[in-house]
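Re: that chain you flagged

S.,

Sorry for the slow reply, it's been a week of failed gels. I finally had a moment to sit down with the sequence you sent. For the record, here it is as I used it:
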Amino acid sequence: MKDMGLTSVRQGAKGEYEKEQCGFKNHVQRQFDPQQPNEVWVSDITYYKFNNKNYYICVILDLFSRRVIAYRISTKNSTQLTKKTLKVAYETRKPTSQLIFHSDRGSNYCSKSFRDFVQKLNIMQSFSQPHTPHDNAVMESFFSNLKKEELYRTKYRSERDFRAAVDRYIVFYNEKRPHHYNANKTPARRESEFYQRQESLRMR
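Prediction finished late last night. Pasting the structure tokens below so you have them in one place:
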């Protein structure tokens, strides 16, 4: 092709093919309705610019209830950000059954360091198809709400003020904000009711 002056229409096609062969598969396939907590977690990173500095927000949601189970804010968009967020989620939730962790194909999630960490935790990793945001639509929706309901509506006086606002929003989102998907229950309430039913069945 070089000798003939030809170029590929899709420059990244080979790279994406190689990723697919190395196990970068989509195990979720837009099935966003697991039957119990800690069955599927989804994650993504967004950023917010404050005082000419980018702040990267990494979030992990439990797909069952749409609950935010971990989040971290950093001035660096690095693999360490995703690893630390997943570590918090894992230590908080302590999943005991097979867990799928779904994200896009950002370098933070595709790096060998992160993939080795996921494998060490015995988690199955799942990836959206390239340039297909609908494959991770629940995370896209969460970030849209975060920005419309909080970040774009407030002028922060300091970094500390910004970080505190994100903290408050996560509490609001988990414990006070009703979700249509949860039959207008909060994520916290949906999970609480699930575990109450499980306990009731166990006691019978």
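What I noticed first: The chain has one domain: 35-198.

Talk soon,
D.
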